[in-house]
Amino acid sequence: MTQATLQGRALPAPGLLGTALMLAAHGIPSLPLRAGKVPFGNCPACAGNACGGRPSMKLQGPCQCPGVCHAWAAATNDVVVLTSPPWASAWRQAVCVAYHPGGAGLTVVDLDDADAIAWARTALPATRIVPTTRGEHWIYRGTMTSHNGVRPGVDIKSTMAYARYLGPGTGTMTDLPDVVRALAMREHPARPAPRSVSLPTGPGSGRCPHRTPVFLERGIAMAEQRITAARSAIHATVYGTFLAVLSTHGRCGCLTDTHITRLFTAAQSKGETARHCTDAWNNALTTLGL
């Protein structure tokens, strides 16, 4: 069964690759995470979404890259892929194993602290619970769209997301309840949608030179590449890149939601959450007085 491992029948296996193979045996797609518990970065051929992305990422494609460079979308339960280059090398560099809940037919309610756990115990039906470093993962059968910050200390990880595998946990897994789905339907000021910057140019400045398609495209592509090439200090790199883009293009109305979404997608491929992306963007706007 897809949920067998997470229902208490985890098999002993040495090392991270062994854990991934155990998950694969139960149809649970996994991927390695590097230091900082973030996915491996894009390979040179896929940097800046030059590959077109993978179909499961809803980007143009398909990407034929056999590597680990598309975060949750690279998660697999194919034993040949898991044990062959370049995955074999990635496992040697990895620090932990993650899995794609949506790909396994699951939803994880990620509770980050004691207050979130106390809320869940009164608001959510009992299910399988896995202890985490700071809180708990409550795992339900069924999938939904992933959302971060649905309430203080609570994220929902299902489709288009990954969660660390931290063991089988305890308790009996139950079906995804409507109360969890309802959380994602509310408005949450902590994660506002990206907004375009439409400020007028200064007096007498004339037509904005940044509207030249080649200039703007090159700038966005370079920003995407800078983010996806980062191997450490991901938060700082994302913020610095957002700041650089806005300092060049933020005052003339060049940026659209499409450009911003590309930057957010690059950041999320490195493990950043939608909430962190929005916070970094808004902080950059504030710093520049926009």
Tell me what the structure shows.
The structure is a single chain. 34% of the residues lie in helices and 13% in strands. With 290 residues, it is an alpha+beta fold. Strands 3, 4, 5, 6, 7 and 9 form a six-stranded mixed beta sheet that branches. Helix 6 runs antiparallel to helix 7, helix 6 runs parallel beside helix 8 and helix 7 (234-249) crosses helix 9 (274-287). The radius of gyration is 20 Å and the shape is globular. It starts with 14 loop residues before the first helix and ends with a helix.
Work out the strand percent: 5-15%
> What's the helix-strand series?
HEHHEEHEEEEEEHHHHH
Fraction of residues in H or I helices: 25-40%
| Euclidean distance between termini CA atoms | 52 Å
The radius of gyration over CA amounts to: 20 Å
Q: How many strand units?
A: 9
* Shape verdict: globular
Spans with pLDDT under 50 lasting ≥5 residues? Answer: 1-13, 55-61, 187-207
> Major sheet, described briefly?
6 strands, mixed
Number of DSSP helical runs: 9
Mean pLDDT, rounded to whole units? Answer: 79
Oligomer: single chain
Structural class: alpha+beta
Entry keywords:
3-stranded antiparallel sheet, globular, 9 strands, alpha+beta, 13% strand, disordered N terminus, 6-stranded mixed sheet, 290 residues
What's a concise summary of this model?
With 290 residues, the protein is an alpha+beta fold.
Q: Helices and strands in order, then pairings?
A:
Layout lengths: L14 H11 L4 E4 L45 H5 L3 H7 L2 E4 L6 E6 L2 H10 L4 E4 L4 E6 L5 E5 L2 E4 L5 E2 L9 E2 L2 H6 L29 H17 L4 H16 L7 H13 L4 H14 L3
Parallel strand pairs: 5-9
Antiparallel strand pairs: 1-2, 2-8, 3-5, 3-7, 4-5, 6-7
Helix pairs in contact: 6-7, 6-8, 7-9
